[in-house]
Design goal:
With about 500 residues, the protein is an alpha/beta fold. The strands form 5 sheets. Strands 1, 2, 3, 4, 5, 6, 7 and 17 form an 8-stranded mixed beta sheet that branches. It has a 5-stranded antiparallel beta sheet with strand order 18-19-22-21-20, sandwiched between helices. Strand 6 and strand 7 form a beta hairpin. The longest helix has 19 residues. It is globular, with a radius of gyration of 24 Å. The two termini are about 45 Å apart. Its cofactor is FAD. Pfam families: Pyr_redox_2 (PF07992), Pyr_redox_dim (PF02852). InterPro entries: Class-I_Pyr_Nuc-Dis_Oxidored (IPR050151), FAD/NAD-bd_sf (IPR036188), FAD/NAD-binding_dom (IPR023753), FAD/NAD-linked_Rdtase_dimer_sf (IPR016156), Pyr_nuc-diS_OxRdtase (IPR001100), Pyr_nucl-diS_OxRdtase_dimer (IPR004099). This is Dihydrolipoyl dehydrogenase.
């Protein structure tokens, strides 16, 4: 896709133009573009890709590494850490192979490979890609300083004012939230950044939280040599998925040696002679070498100049389905900052929609295609958001859970199936444990949501996403024949269960 976009951008570049001016009083350079993108993570990159493909001149502003959180401190390094963990777990379930993989993982080699995935925290390749599509990169802190205007302050204090003829797109993502505990900064706790970039496994690691970051990092570091204690304030893990998803993941973590405690809150954290001391709400004292707080995210909008245009600094930015900020005719918020779905793939989807909408408005299209599933509507944000949690076992879901569907007033039926009874599951090893659920809208006989838990289910979720996003009727799904023997045969079993019960 990127290669194709690059070709289109180059063939249409004649329609884009950039103008330069210098204020003689301040010697501040002012440069005009069609579009200014604030943030060069994967979302900002995709906004730039789409606007450049439409022939619009585009500037991208980044204060850290081009490629953003996902490339260096989230998606890529975390999955590089987890892949050997999952591969070993799968191998240990296979007679004839299990004995060959009983030794400990080589943490040093795994972290070295992780470092390669992050390009050793250098962004030359991603900078080259931006240059290849014809976007201009400005390094420094970008701040909105008026309507359609972004001032970039470089590391040397140099300021450049970028003005946008058509749109400013905010794609600055989120930052980790730490709890309000006394002197927590003195403890130097881990956030997701430290957890995905650490060079060595701490002997004892306390993980606070029960969501995706907490469960994935607990799974990774337990397997890489840490003794993990997972402290969860709520009743279980992965509370945005069906309850059985978190239950199976918690069960596997305990079997791997992790100490999983639910209904537990942290009241204080100190570091005494290098040792982290955690006190819980029950008064229990837990000692560790490091502590990871995976307790939520906040929008990275506190110092980007929202106050200059009448918006609250540090706030989420509400948008319409074309990703334009409510009440504005030029400001867009794409990705995590709009709080629709804090997922890289969903942000990139939004970027494609936003890019198309910006280009259409720039060309004077009188009426955008904003009907459901239109070219300028991020409809999937409302009904078909997929996610995979790369733990052992994997958990994957798209659309609504049973509780969410019922709360929304749908008349539904949950259809469950034990994945261990699918022929293809046996190929993943002995003792397979997993579960599948589809949520059927009984009025329209389409799927509103699907959840899978078990080894290998991450590769099932796109078929579920197509079924949910496409609103494929149950009667038509009958004719989508799964190959035998694959784990995809669960689709047939779910449909048979729905028909026969």
């Amino acid at each position: 896709m990127r290669g194709q976009s690059r070709i289109r951008a180059r063939t249409r570049v004649a329609t884009a133009h950039t103008t330069h001016q210098t204020d003689p009083m301040t010697e501040t350079e002012s440069i005009a573009y069609d579009v200014v993108v604030l943030g060069a993570g994967p979302v900002g990159e995709n906004v730039a890709d789409r606007t450049r493909a439409a022939g619009l001149s585009t500037a991208v502003v980044e204060s850290e590494l081009v490629g953003g959180e996902c490339s260096y401190w989230a998606c890529m390094p975390s999955k590089a850490l987890l892949r050997p963990v999952i591969a070993q777990a799968d191998a240990r379930r296979l007679p004839g192979l299990a004995a060959a993989v009983q030794g400990p993982l080589d943490t040093a080699k795994i972290t070295a490979r992780r470092d390669a995935f992050t390009s050793h925290w250098k962004d030359d390749g991603q900078v080259g890609w931006l240059e290849g599509i014809g976007a201009d990169l400005y390094r420094g802190h970008g701040r909105i300083t008026g309507a359609r205007q972004v001032t970039v302050t470089g590391a040397d204090g140099t300021e450049r004012v970028l003005t946008a003829r058509h749109a400013v797109a905010v794609s600055t993502g989120t930052r980790a939230v730490l709890p309000d505990l006394p002197a927590l900064a003195d403890v130097k706790p881990w956030t997701s950044r430290e957890a995905t970039s650490a060079k060595e496994a701490p002997g004892r690691l306390v993980v606070v939280g029960g969501g995706v970051v907490a469960t994935e990092m607990a799974c990774a570091w337990q397997a890489l040599g840490s003794q993990v204690t997972l402290l969860v304030r709520g009743k279980g893990l992965l509370n945005r998925m069906e309850p059985f998803a978190g239950e199976l993941v918690a069960e596997a973590l305990k079997e791997a040696g992790a100490d999983v405690r639910t209904g537990t809150s942290v009241t204080s954290v100190t570091r005494e002679n290098g040792t982290v001391v955690v006190v819980t709400d029950s008064g229990e004292r837990i000692e560790a070498d490091e502590i990871l707080f995976a307790t939520g995210r906040a929008p990275h909008t506190d110092d980007i100049g929202l106050d200059t245009i009448g918006l609250e600094p540090g706030s989420w930015l509400p948008v319409d389905d074309s990703l334009r900020v409510i009440g504005s005719d030029w400001l867009y918020a794409v990705g995590d900052v709009n709080h629709r779905a804090l997922l890289t793939h969903q942000g990139k989807y939004q970027a494609r929609i936003a890019g198309a909408a910006i280009a259409a408005r720039a060309s004077g299209v009188p009426l955008l295609e904003t009907d459901p599933w239109g070219a300028h509507a991020a409809t999937a944000d409302h009904s078909a958001v997929p996610q995979v949690v790369f733990t052992d076992p994997e958990a994957a879901a798209v659309g609504l859970s049973l509780a969410e569907a019922e709360q929304a007033g749908h008349r539904v039926r949950a259809v469950d199936y034990d994945l261990a009874n699918v022929s293809g599951a046996s190929l993943y090893g002995d003792g397979y444990r997993g579960r599948a659920r589809m949520i059927v809208d009984l009025e329209r006989e389409i799927l509103l949501g699907v959840t899978f838990v078990g080894p290998g289910v991450g590769e099932l979720i796109h078929s579920a996403t197509i079924a949910v996003a496409g609103e494929v009727p149950i009667s038509r799904l009958w004719h989508a024949v799964p190959s035998y023997p694959t784990i995809s045969e669960v689709w047939l079993r779910l449909l048979e269960t729905y028909r026969d019960n």
